[in-house]
Amino acid sequence: MARPTGISPMNKLERALRVPPGSRIKLANIDPANTHGVLKAEAAERLTKNLERLSELQYRLYAESRRALLVVLQGIDAGGKDGTVRHVMSGLNPQGVSVTSFKVPEGAEKRHDYLWRVHQAVPEWGQIGIFNRSHYEDVLVVRVHNLVPKAVWSKRYRQINDFERMLSENGVVILKFLLYISKEEQAERFRLRLEDKTRTWKFSPADPKERVYWDQYIEAYEEALRKCATRWAPWYVIPANKKWFRNLAVSQVIVDALERMNLKYPKPAAELSAVKIK
Question: Cα separation of 229 and 220, whole Å?
Fold first, then answer.
Protein backbone atom coordinates (compact mmCIF):
# COMPACT_ATOMS: atom_id res chain seq x y z
CA MET A 1 0.00 0.00 0.00
CA ALA A 2 1.35 3.43 -0.90
CA ARG A 3 2.09 5.83 1.89
CA PRO A 4 -0.77 8.33 2.31
CA THR A 5 0.17 11.87 1.46
CA GLY A 6 -1.66 13.36 4.45
CA ILE A 7 -1.23 17.11 4.71
CA SER A 8 0.74 18.22 1.68
CA PRO A 9 3.61 18.67 2.09
CA MET A 10 3.59 16.89 5.47
CA ASN A 11 7.27 17.47 6.17
CA LYS A 12 6.49 21.18 6.45
CA LEU A 13 3.87 20.53 9.10
CA GLU A 14 6.26 18.28 11.02
CA ARG A 15 8.90 21.01 11.01
CA ALA A 16 6.34 23.61 12.07
CA LEU A 17 5.23 21.54 15.06
CA ARG A 18 8.64 20.25 16.11
CA VAL A 19 10.63 22.19 18.70
CA PRO A 20 14.18 22.68 17.38
CA PRO A 21 16.84 21.62 19.93
CA GLY A 22 18.25 24.64 21.72
CA SER A 23 15.44 26.96 20.68
CA ARG A 24 14.08 29.64 23.02
CA ILE A 25 10.46 28.73 22.47
CA LYS A 26 7.70 30.97 23.83
CA LEU A 27 4.26 29.40 23.93
CA ALA A 28 2.69 32.86 23.79
CA ASN A 29 3.90 33.02 20.18
CA ILE A 30 1.94 29.88 19.25
CA ASP A 31 -1.76 30.08 18.45
CA PRO A 32 -3.45 27.06 20.09
CA ALA A 33 -6.26 27.35 17.51
CA ASN A 34 -3.89 27.25 14.53
CA THR A 35 -4.69 24.48 12.04
CA HIS A 36 -1.77 25.20 9.69
CA GLY A 37 -4.02 25.61 6.68
CA VAL A 38 -5.87 22.31 7.15
CA LEU A 39 -9.63 22.44 6.69
CA LYS A 40 -11.93 20.51 8.99
CA ALA A 41 -13.84 19.16 5.99
CA GLU A 42 -10.77 17.25 4.78
CA ALA A 43 -9.33 16.27 8.15
CA ALA A 44 -11.62 13.28 8.81
CA GLU A 45 -10.64 11.49 5.59
CA ARG A 46 -6.96 12.15 6.20
CA LEU A 47 -7.21 10.90 9.76
CA THR A 48 -8.89 7.70 8.55
CA LYS A 49 -6.04 7.09 6.11
CA ASN A 50 -3.48 7.72 8.81
CA LEU A 51 -5.15 5.29 11.20
CA GLU A 52 -5.23 2.61 8.52
CA ARG A 53 -1.54 3.14 7.85
CA LEU A 54 -0.77 3.21 11.56
CA SER A 55 -2.39 -0.21 11.95
CA GLU A 56 -0.23 -1.62 9.15
CA LEU A 57 2.95 -0.13 10.54
CA GLN A 58 2.17 -1.38 14.04
CA TYR A 59 1.91 -4.90 12.61
CA ARG A 60 5.36 -4.56 11.03
CA LEU A 61 6.80 -3.20 14.27
CA TYR A 62 5.31 -6.15 16.16
CA ALA A 63 6.60 -8.66 13.61
CA GLU A 64 10.11 -7.17 13.48
CA SER A 65 10.30 -6.98 17.29
CA ARG A 66 13.67 -5.23 17.38
CA ARG A 67 12.51 -1.70 18.19
CA ALA A 68 9.72 0.03 20.10
CA LEU A 69 7.83 3.32 19.89
CA LEU A 70 7.17 5.47 22.93
CA VAL A 71 4.57 8.25 22.63
CA VAL A 72 4.57 10.80 25.46
CA LEU A 73 1.45 12.94 25.87
CA GLN A 74 1.66 16.00 28.09
CA GLY A 75 -0.69 18.91 28.50
CA ILE A 76 -2.36 21.12 31.02
CA ASP A 77 -5.63 19.83 32.56
CA ALA A 78 -8.31 19.25 29.89
CA GLY A 79 -5.66 19.47 27.18
CA GLY A 80 -6.98 16.36 25.46
CA LYS A 81 -4.62 13.56 26.46
CA ASP A 82 -7.41 11.00 26.97
CA GLY A 83 -9.12 12.09 23.77
CA THR A 84 -5.92 11.72 21.78
CA VAL A 85 -5.46 8.18 23.06
CA ARG A 86 -9.07 7.35 22.24
CA HIS A 87 -9.14 8.81 18.72
CA VAL A 88 -5.59 8.31 17.45
CA MET A 89 -4.85 4.88 18.94
CA SER A 90 -8.30 3.40 18.30
CA GLY A 91 -7.16 1.22 15.42
CA LEU A 92 -4.17 -0.35 17.14
CA ASN A 93 -4.05 -4.03 18.01
CA PRO A 94 -4.32 -4.24 21.83
CA GLN A 95 -1.72 -7.03 21.83
CA GLY A 96 0.92 -4.58 20.71
CA VAL A 97 0.11 -1.42 22.65
CA SER A 98 0.16 -0.30 26.27
CA VAL A 99 -1.12 2.89 27.89
CA THR A 100 0.35 4.07 31.18
CA SER A 101 -1.15 6.94 33.18
CA PHE A 102 1.22 8.36 35.76
CA LYS A 103 -0.52 9.48 38.92
CA VAL A 104 0.92 10.77 42.20
CA PRO A 105 3.66 8.31 43.24
CA GLU A 106 2.63 5.84 45.92
CA GLY A 107 3.93 2.71 47.63
CA ALA A 108 7.17 1.42 46.17
CA GLU A 109 7.25 4.30 43.69
CA LYS A 110 7.95 6.71 46.54
CA ARG A 111 10.89 4.60 47.73
CA HIS A 112 12.78 4.78 44.42
CA ASP A 113 14.12 7.52 42.19
CA TYR A 114 11.50 9.28 40.08
CA LEU A 115 12.49 7.47 36.87
CA TRP A 116 12.18 3.97 38.37
CA ARG A 117 8.47 3.57 37.65
CA VAL A 118 8.88 5.19 34.25
CA HIS A 119 11.53 2.75 33.08
CA GLN A 120 9.32 -0.17 34.07
CA ALA A 121 6.58 1.14 31.76
CA VAL A 122 8.82 1.58 28.70
CA PRO A 123 7.43 -0.60 25.89
CA GLU A 124 9.28 -3.77 25.01
CA TRP A 125 10.54 -4.27 21.46
CA GLY A 126 7.71 -4.72 19.01
CA GLN A 127 5.34 -2.65 21.12
CA ILE A 128 3.91 0.88 21.09
CA GLY A 129 3.80 2.48 24.52
CA ILE A 130 1.74 5.56 25.33
CA PHE A 131 2.42 7.69 28.39
CA ASN A 132 -0.57 9.74 29.54
CA ARG A 133 1.52 12.20 31.54
CA SER A 134 5.05 11.06 32.18
CA HIS A 135 8.39 11.68 33.85
CA TYR A 136 7.98 15.32 32.86
CA GLU A 137 5.57 15.76 35.76
CA ASP A 138 8.73 15.80 37.87
CA VAL A 139 9.80 19.09 36.29
CA LEU A 140 6.24 20.44 35.96
CA VAL A 141 3.85 19.93 38.88
CA VAL A 142 6.79 19.23 41.19
CA ARG A 143 8.31 22.57 40.22
CA VAL A 144 5.10 24.60 40.25
CA HIS A 145 4.05 23.36 43.70
CA ASN A 146 7.55 23.33 45.20
CA LEU A 147 7.31 19.64 46.09
CA VAL A 148 11.08 19.34 46.02
CA PRO A 149 13.78 22.04 46.17
CA LYS A 150 14.95 23.72 42.97
CA ALA A 151 18.38 22.19 43.56
CA VAL A 152 16.70 18.80 43.04
CA TRP A 153 14.33 19.38 40.12
CA SER A 154 16.77 21.56 38.17
CA LYS A 155 19.08 18.55 37.71
CA ARG A 156 16.29 16.47 36.24
CA TYR A 157 16.41 18.01 32.77
CA ARG A 158 19.89 16.55 32.28
CA GLN A 159 18.85 13.26 33.87
CA ILE A 160 15.81 13.01 31.61
CA ASN A 161 17.88 13.73 28.51
CA ASP A 162 20.37 11.03 29.51
CA PHE A 163 17.54 8.57 30.22
CA GLU A 164 15.85 9.24 26.89
CA ARG A 165 19.13 9.02 25.02
CA MET A 166 19.84 5.64 26.60
CA LEU A 167 16.41 4.41 25.50
CA SER A 168 16.94 5.76 21.99
CA GLU A 169 20.31 4.06 21.67
CA ASN A 170 18.65 0.80 22.68
CA GLY A 171 15.92 0.73 20.08
CA VAL A 172 13.17 2.92 21.55
CA VAL A 173 11.94 5.67 19.23
CA ILE A 174 10.55 8.54 21.34
CA LEU A 175 7.95 11.13 20.33
CA LYS A 176 6.84 13.76 22.85
CA PHE A 177 3.71 15.86 22.35
CA LEU A 178 2.59 18.94 24.25
CA LEU A 179 -1.14 19.32 23.62
CA TYR A 180 -1.39 23.09 23.87
CA ILE A 181 -4.74 24.77 24.56
CA SER A 182 -5.63 28.30 25.59
CA LYS A 183 -6.77 29.23 29.07
CA GLU A 184 -10.17 30.18 27.63
CA GLU A 185 -10.51 26.78 25.94
CA GLN A 186 -9.67 25.05 29.20
CA ALA A 187 -12.40 26.99 30.99
CA GLU A 188 -14.93 26.00 28.31
CA ARG A 189 -13.97 22.33 28.60
CA PHE A 190 -14.33 22.48 32.38
CA ARG A 191 -17.82 23.95 31.95
CA LEU A 192 -18.78 21.18 29.57
CA ARG A 193 -17.62 18.57 32.06
CA LEU A 194 -19.81 20.09 34.72
CA GLU A 195 -22.84 20.15 32.42
CA ASP A 196 -22.46 16.68 30.90
CA LYS A 197 -23.32 13.84 33.29
CA THR A 198 -21.13 11.47 31.29
CA ARG A 199 -18.12 13.71 31.96
CA THR A 200 -18.60 14.94 35.51
CA TRP A 201 -16.55 12.01 36.81
CA LYS A 202 -13.53 13.61 35.12
CA PHE A 203 -13.97 16.88 36.97
CA SER A 204 -12.14 17.51 40.22
CA PRO A 205 -12.69 20.46 42.56
CA ALA A 206 -8.94 20.91 42.36
CA ASP A 207 -9.11 21.65 38.62
CA PRO A 208 -10.24 25.30 38.93
CA LYS A 209 -7.69 25.85 41.70
CA GLU A 210 -4.87 24.77 39.39
CA ARG A 211 -5.85 27.53 36.95
CA VAL A 212 -4.33 29.97 39.42
CA TYR A 213 -0.96 28.49 38.46
CA TRP A 214 -1.48 28.79 34.70
CA ASP A 215 1.46 31.16 34.11
CA GLN A 216 3.76 29.07 36.28
CA TYR A 217 2.84 25.94 34.34
CA ILE A 218 3.49 27.71 31.04
CA GLU A 219 6.94 28.74 32.27
CA ALA A 220 7.64 25.20 33.43
CA TYR A 221 6.57 23.75 30.09
CA GLU A 222 8.70 26.25 28.19
CA GLU A 223 11.80 25.30 30.15
CA ALA A 224 11.12 21.59 29.65
CA LEU A 225 10.73 22.19 25.91
CA ARG A 226 13.91 24.25 25.72
CA LYS A 227 16.07 21.89 27.73
CA CYS A 228 14.66 18.53 26.64
CA ALA A 229 13.96 18.97 22.93
CA THR A 230 16.64 16.72 21.49
CA ARG A 231 17.42 14.99 18.23
CA TRP A 232 16.83 11.59 19.82
CA ALA A 233 13.62 12.52 21.69
CA PRO A 234 11.90 15.42 19.89
CA TRP A 235 9.15 17.57 21.33
CA TYR A 236 6.14 18.61 19.24
CA VAL A 237 3.81 21.43 20.27
CA ILE A 238 0.36 20.55 18.95
CA PRO A 239 -2.19 23.39 18.77
CA ALA A 240 -5.04 21.54 20.46
CA ASN A 241 -7.99 23.94 20.71
CA LYS A 242 -9.41 22.17 17.65
CA LYS A 243 -9.66 18.51 18.57
CA TRP A 244 -9.91 17.38 14.97
CA PHE A 245 -6.62 19.06 14.10
CA ARG A 246 -4.96 17.71 17.25
CA ASN A 247 -5.89 14.15 16.26
CA LEU A 248 -4.75 14.59 12.68
CA ALA A 249 -1.44 16.23 13.60
CA VAL A 250 -0.51 13.64 16.24
CA SER A 251 -1.44 10.75 13.94
CA GLN A 252 0.63 12.16 11.10
CA VAL A 253 3.74 12.68 13.22
CA ILE A 254 3.46 9.10 14.52
CA VAL A 255 2.92 7.63 11.05
CA ASP A 256 5.87 9.59 9.68
CA ALA A 257 8.13 8.38 12.50
CA LEU A 258 7.16 4.75 11.89
CA GLU A 259 7.72 5.20 8.15
CA ARG A 260 11.23 6.51 8.83
CA MET A 261 11.98 3.36 10.83
CA ASN A 262 11.79 1.39 7.54
CA LEU A 263 10.25 -1.56 9.33
CA LYS A 264 10.82 -4.98 7.76
CA TYR A 265 9.10 -8.30 8.21
CA PRO A 266 11.59 -10.84 9.59
CA LYS A 267 12.77 -13.71 7.43
CA PRO A 268 11.31 -17.13 8.25
CA ALA A 269 13.27 -19.15 10.79
CA ALA A 270 13.67 -22.03 8.33
CA GLU A 271 13.57 -22.73 4.61
CA LEU A 272 9.90 -23.05 3.68
CA SER A 273 10.06 -23.92 -0.01
CA ALA A 274 9.97 -27.64 0.67
CA VAL A 275 7.18 -27.47 3.23
CA LYS A 276 4.00 -29.23 2.09
CA ILE A 277 0.62 -28.92 3.80
CA LYS A 278 -1.28 -32.18 3.50
Answer: 14
Cis amide linkage into residue 9, ω under 30° from 0: yes
Question: CA 192 to CA 203: how far, in whole Å?
Answer: 10
Q: Domain tally for the chain?
A: 1
Diameter of the chain measured on Cα atoms: 72
Q: What is the mean pLDDT of each run of 10 residues along the chain (278 residues)?
A: 44 88 96 96 94 97 97 96 95 94 95 98 98 98 97 98 98 98 96 87 84 97 98 98 97 96 89 78
- Per DSSP, 33 falls in state T
Measured torsion, CA atoms of residues 26, 187, 82, 33, in degrees rounded to the nearest 10: -50
30 in a domain, yes or no? no
- Note down the domain range covering 210: 35-260
What CATH number does residue 200 fall under? 3.40.50.300
Which residue type, as a one-letter code, is found at position 119?
H
Please state whether beta strands 128-132 and 235-239 pair in parallel, antiparallel, or not at all (unpaired): unpaired
Rounded Cα distance between 208 and 195, Å, is 15
